[in-house]
Design a protein that fits this description.
The complex is a heterodimer of chains A (128) and B (212).
Chain A (H helix, E strand, L loop, with lengths): L2 E5 L2 H4 L3 H12 L3 E6 L4 H14 L7 E6 L8 H14 L5 E6 L3 E6 L4 E5 L9
Parallel strand pairs in A: 1-2
Antiparallel strand pairs in A: 2-4, 3-4, 5-6
Helix pairs in contact in A: 2-3
Chain B lengths: L1 H16 L5 E6 L6 H12 L18 E9 L5 E8 L9 H6 L4 H21 L5 E7 L7 H12 L4 E6 L8 H7 L5 E3 L8 H12 L2
Parallel strand pairs in B: 1-3, 1-4, 4-5, 5-6
Antiparallel strand pairs in B: 2-3
The chains are: A alpha+beta (128), B alpha/beta (212).
Amino acid sequence: MVTLHFVPYTEIENLSSIGRIKKLLTVAKQNKIVLLQGRLKKEEETELIKTTMEEINKEFSGIELAVINPSQSSLQGFNKFKNDVLSLVLGDRQGLTIIGPANVVKAISKDPDKIELYTSERVSRKKR
Amino acid sequence: MMGKFRDVLNLWFGGIFGVKKNIKLGLYGPPNSGKTTLANKICQDWVGQSMGSVSPIAHETREINIKEQISIKADDGRELMFNLVDTPGIATRIDYEDFMKAGMSEVKAKKRAREATRGVIESIKWLDEMDTVVVVLDATQDPYSQVNITIIGNLAARKTPVLIVANKVDLRKANIKKIQAAFPQYDVIGISAKFGKNINEFYNAIFKLTGR
């Protein structure tokens, strides 16, 4: 069974960058797939990768990460203008970030408006 | 004596007056995209020696490697000197069991995984140090991976000039157009670092990238 854990943007809005990353990683380390409303800042994404590397051990082998960002889509004309205005108002709330623990999610394929999650059969590692 | 004096001046004032002589050119990308193969090709072409070992097993490069003062020449005689920085591949997952599947012993696989995680952290820390970056992508792989987007997005936020190299174009599955579609705001050069295909176009693009 795969568990999806939704995190509304309001839950991370007032946290520091490190606080946000710790919160998201704590959920992912419970073998749950995090669905975050919106996205992290660019520098927070690299910090998330760095922190993930620091926390890798026998039980946790990292994450799979994907961000769907409507502003990256090929909007044109009035739709693009509308989206730019929304981005100004909503900030990082737009889009969706998926963080899957590597033990559960084998790969994420993005194309760029569609996301496919390939889940792994193995969830818990054998004790060695 | 004058040379040393000039070097000191360059060190202290070069960046301020825009005459920085030795720029740092970083090779970034996901594991196994061919960064070290490209670094070796550059070094073999201009220094006459290799830079690092390559392997089909991911995370062969686990430390930052620097080759200083590489001087390359353009077709029209222009010269460019830079310090080449080969970085470990950036990944979001490292599982020692993957190395065991590739034939490594458990002890070696765990050691490689530990070193690989440190390598990723070092690569990210070094992003701040780079003057220009060549992002090396495997043209046979999906370019929309979040690691690629995160690396390039971070470089854009730092206003670091970026050239994207679509490597392994000698392989039938290579798809440069998909990489161009994924990153339309960047120049994308298709090369085969292993066989030297389009390598002169790559060197010309480096001159363009550095504004020389």
